């Protein structure tokens, strides 16, 4: 099922988390000079890395997620997102990527001047972050790698407004209220998965007019 745009809402819902992790980094980059060029390159690199990760996990998902079992993955993704937004899962699950690939990209970027901020953005796109893991759980549900790419592209774009607010120095906006969007997406995924399980057990649900609307198997 093409739910790639759900990642946009996950990114928006967790954007307050971006202020904690990425806000000081962006502020540090801005303080290094008056050029706005680096302030464009850095987020572009970060979003591109998110998109690449989305493409890869969707490619894996298209192999492993069998159509007959799609409902289990929806439930699992919903539960994972709940664990992330309630901070039951830490930010260390992607640490191995940041320690390996991320540091390599940053080292290469140091030789490129302002263009190196693009590489720094890609490197920080691999920072251990539970919110990114939540976005990737949506990407993995996509039936095609390109939809996984779009999923994490939208996720990255959704994190930009909160960082812009941070740079403007606006302190009175309580972005944590956006977490309710994350709860809504989590419950929607769980309901879709549970409905799919019910369709396997109930002829009424299987032939219900709501079934094609609430959920349906992956289309290849």
Features:
single chain; 220 residues; mainly alpha; 70% helix; elongated
Uncertain segments of ≥5 residues (pLDDT<50)? Answer: none
Q: Which structural class do the helices and strands define?
A: mainly alpha
Q: How big a fraction of the residues is strand?
A: under 5%
Oligomer state equals: single chain
Give the distance, in angstroms, between the N- and C-terminal Cα atoms: 9 Å
Shape: elongated
Description of the molecule:
The protein has 220 residues and is mainly alpha-helical. It has one domain. Helix 8 packs antiparallel against helix 9 (145-158). It is built from 13 helices and no strands.
Structure described in brief:
The chain has helices spanning 6-13, 15-21, 23-30, 37-64, 70-85, 95-109, 116-124, 130-139, 145-158, 160-168, 179-201, 203-206, 211-214. It has 220 residues and is mainly alpha-helical.
């Amino acid at each position: 099922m093409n739910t790639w745009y759900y990642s946009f809402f996950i990114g928006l819902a967790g954007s307050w988390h971006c202020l904690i992790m990425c806000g000081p980094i962006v502020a540090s980059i801005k303080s290094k000079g008056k050029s706005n060029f680096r302030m464009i390159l850095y987020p572009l690199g970060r979003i591109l890395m998110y998109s690449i990760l989305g493409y890869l996990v969707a490619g894996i998902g298209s192999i492993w997620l069998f159509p007959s079992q799609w409902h289990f993955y929806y439930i699992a993704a919903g539960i994972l997102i709940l664990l992330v937004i309630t901070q039951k899962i830490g930010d260390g699950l992607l640490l191995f990527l940041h320690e390996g690939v991320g540091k390599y990209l940053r080292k290469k970027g140091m030789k490129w001047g302002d263009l190196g901020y693009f590489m720094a953005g890609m490197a920080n796109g691999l920072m251990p972050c539970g919110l990114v893991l939540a976005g990737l759980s949506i990407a993995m549900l996509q039936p095609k790698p390109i939809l996984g790419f779009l999923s994490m592209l939208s996720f990255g774009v959704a994190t930009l407004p909160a960082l812009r607010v941070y740079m403007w120095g606006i302190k009175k906006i309580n972005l944590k209220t956006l977490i309710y969007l994350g709860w809504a997406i989590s419950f929607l995924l769980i309901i879709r998965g549970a409905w799919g399980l019910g369709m396997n057990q109930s002829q009424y649900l299987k032939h219900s007019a709501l079934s094609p609307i609430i959920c349906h198997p992956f289309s290849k």
